[in-house]
Amino acid sequence: MSRGAVDLHTHTTASDGTLPPRELVLAAARHHVSVLAVTDHDSTEGLAEAMAEAPTHRITIVPGLEINCDVEGAEVHILGYFVDQNAPWFQAFLREQRAERVARVHRIAERLAELGMPIEPAEVFAMCNEGSPGRPHVAQVMVQRGYVKSVREAFDKYLKTGGAANVPRRRLTPVEAVQVIRRAHGVPVFAHPGLADRDAMIPELVEAGLMGIETYYPEHSATQTREYLGLCERHGLVPTGGSDFHGPQSGRTNMVGSQPVPWSSWEALQQRRERA
Ligand code: AMP
Ligand code: FE
Ligand code: FE
Ligand code: ZN
């Protein structure tokens, strides 16, 4: 079997992606992906459908998820691969995470009303089929209501970290996210650290059980990629990578499979799985 592309970071309609899992796999096949991690926010609901579609296309699905944590003045996202997704305690944990997302949408709606841009939380929940709601769904409702022209404008003007309508979530710290993934026998990875700007947290995350850093990422500069490779060597971590594909009309443009990720990253990730 020929080696196609490796993409260890993608989203579906189970969270804030715009393609259902099956269509994500079809897009991956068209772009010659042979290893595809599905990493929805606080949800593993998209995995079964992706896994059912993948064999026809000779694609290996890596089961994953992404946990977004708010820290002082920034966001730290932790990816988890190969978790025991069927463990009842783990699914209960994800349901709590999504319940906090729902509560947060209500708080964001209150802020938007104060800013003269009322929305109905129900519109947001309809947008994600009562799944894992997030700011991208709020942004889509703002576009529909004509408050902004695009998802990007909604983020830039109101929803970004520190934005007037952004409300931080209550719950997990990044250390706790790493620990919960290890407890589920998964491999925790610091997602796109170049966007988080919290490299100072890496030692405590390693202490908590971190096993990788997402080094190859569309928005990382060549210098950042080199720095994170160096940090991986220093701490004995796997340098992973992916496109963070969210589908068409998501306000993001990186195509699935478009971020080069070395095959050795995938091999190293599988080796960590045995230790996790
Ligand atoms: P949340 O899950 O509510 O914290 O929202 C975070 C998600 O918003 C990220 O996973 C991205 O998919 C998306 N996002 C963040 N910044 C932007 C942006 N500037 N434009 C479009 N989507 C964004
Ligand atoms: Fe997202
Ligand atoms: Fe992320
Ligand atoms: Zn992501």
Task: Describe the structure using short key phrases.
276 residues; alpha/beta; seven-stranded mixed sheet; 11 helices; 7 strands; binds adenosine monophosphate; binds fe (iii) ion; binds zinc ion
Describe the overall structure.
A seven-stranded mixed sheet has the order 1-2-3-4-5-6-7, with helices on both faces. Helices cover 43% and strands 15% of the residues. It contains eleven helices and seven strands. It binds adenosine monophosphate (AMP), fe (iii) ion (FE) (2 copies) and zinc ion (ZN). One fe (iii) ion binds at residues 66, 77, 191-192. The site of one fe (iii) ion (FE) has 4 residues, from loops.
Structural class: alpha/beta
Rounded Rg = 18 Å
Shape: globular
Report the strand count: 7
What low-confidence regions span 5 or more consecutive residues with pLDDT below 50? none
Helix content: 40-55%
Distance between the termini: 28 Å
Element string (H = helix, E = strand): EHEHEEHHHHHEHHEHEH
Strand-helix topology:
Elements: E1 5-7, H1 21-30, E2 33-38, H2 47-53, E3 60-71, E4 74-81, H3 88-114, H4 121-127, H5 135-144, H6 151-159, H7 174-183, E5 187-190, H8 193-196, H9 202-208, E6 212-216, H10 222-235, E7 238-241, H11 263-275
Parallel strand pairs: 1-2, 2-3, 5-6, 6-7
Antiparallel strand pairs: 3-4, 4-5
